[in-house]
């Protein structure tokens, strides 16, 4: 649909809510909350946040599956913009689960009085740019219409559930769930035969917890995966004190690091470290647990031989932990370099396969043929089930953006502009879509980074940019084509300098969604480097962007 002529008065008369804002923000997770705070309380803009859920939290509102937990460490999985907030909030565990993160985000929303400008239960159906009026016209499923000069998508990278189109699902007589759309009242697995499809970060977290109460759990594994123990536990008072006393230093490290975590990658090569010493370092990292394992050596993600040392260490751990050699062999038959897919961390994932009530089915060897009324049928057996859990991931990075009907100048749809992949500049803006900003969009480090660190940088850059425009009487910003082409090249070059593209089935590449263009989406050049690029662009008068009155 092309943009139609714009009648602001009629729109405001018809609208069920106040019609016009300086900025509309879509989503009330980490990104949307901070974007609202920055634009409203720092710049004094009129802002409305539209959120489909009936509460704040974004991904944590939806992902309440058994075992769900953040894999960033709590003391760095938080905002850093307010010293008071940092002082008053106390995390209880090394990796917080959804209830604690939701408590935190509600605390933030209440503390900064954000909820009064968030409209919950509001599903954005379309957002069309009206060139004549230089406004975005946003419509919700409920028929409301609003307008704003700036439109900011804060929709998260992993919010569009991927429910695979497996023949016969509609005939299944049991119940089925996707982990990213988990019922808030929970699911009772006791006495039930459960089938779980998917062994990514989510499936690896869910299986051990489901197995505790289910009569039987069958895990359908298509691609075996590495995992390192999370070693979750309560934070000691001494650690909590350390965090309070070192808030600024911790923040500085997260900002200086490649992945936004509160540690730097060790400056030593796995290949140049003598084997016995290397083994001892891996053992130490295994004991410490968590994503720090990846930071043990500098060359794990850039040199296949170096990576092999980590991969083999983990495969050996799997063989040690899992008692049945055939099951261990299937779990250790991993087809990609360590950390080329997002590296999961777990609590007793491999140990779970030692339980009598857990079975592993290798669906690469014996593929799922269909779902029947009674369960799942593979090429060589039928597995009777009461519940199927889809831990099958998301249409990552672009899915949540493209399921809205976003149209820029001349009615050009974002879906069409991105038919060959998400071409943009800095992951922030797309030519032909003036004044539309994406927080942690494709082309930015986003999912390769501890998210709040990436989010704060993006939100602050967008806020500074809008402040600059207002100071200089500028009304429109969008990138030029050359800047986008150059950025796409830089995103590709950054990925190709690593082993990340070697994981051919990764959602980073869009490979998990049939028909999705195979393009490496996140920027792999490191968060600290990306931060500098964005700052330099702004300092050079927003080089690569067209700003106009
Ligand atoms: P994922 O990494 O995309 O894994 C999906 C799993 O489902 C894979 O094992 C995949 O197999 C399988 N699968 C997909 N479609 C299938 C089909 N048609 N038939 C059989 N198997 C199928 O999704 P995820 O585990 O939800 O994780 C997504 C991302 O969310 C993570 O990478 C991470 O960024 C984030 N996450 C983070 C945390 C955390 O912070 N702790 C926890 C969970 C998730 P293939 O590999 O063969 O495609």
The CATH architecture of the domain at 8-160 and 396-548 comes to 3-Layer(bba) Sandwich
Question: How far apart, in Å, are the first and last alpha carbons?
Answer: 27 Å
**Low-pLDDT residue spans:** 1-7, 10-17
Structure ligands: NADP nicotinamide-adenine-dinucleotide phosphate
Total helices: the number is 17
Helix content: 25-40%
Strand percentage lies at 15-25%
- Average pLDDT taken over every residue: 95
Computed structural class: alpha/beta
CATH superfamily of the domain at 8-160 and 396-548: FAD/NAD(P)-binding domain
CATH C-level class of the domain at 8-160 and 396-548 is Alpha Beta
Q: What is the molecular shape?
A: globular
Biggest sheet character: 8 strands, mixed
Structural write-up:
- The structure is a single chain.
- The protein is an alpha/beta fold and 549 residues long.
- Helices cover 32% and strands 16% of the residues.
- It has a domain at 8-160 and 396-548: FAD/NAD(P)-binding domain (3-Layer(bba) Sandwich), CATH 3.50.50.60.
- Strand 5 and strand 6 (145-153) form a beta hairpin.
- Helix 10 (304-321) runs antiparallel to helix 11 and helix 15 (451-471) packs parallel to helix 17 (527-539).
- The chain is globular.
- It starts with 7 loop residues before the first helix and ends with a strand.
- The relative contact order is 0.14.
- The model is unreliable at 1-7 and 10-17 (pLDDT under 50).
- NADP nicotinamide-adenine-dinucleotide phosphate is lined by residues 69-71, 158, 164, 197-203, 205, 222-223, 342, 363, 391-394, 447, 505, 507, 512.
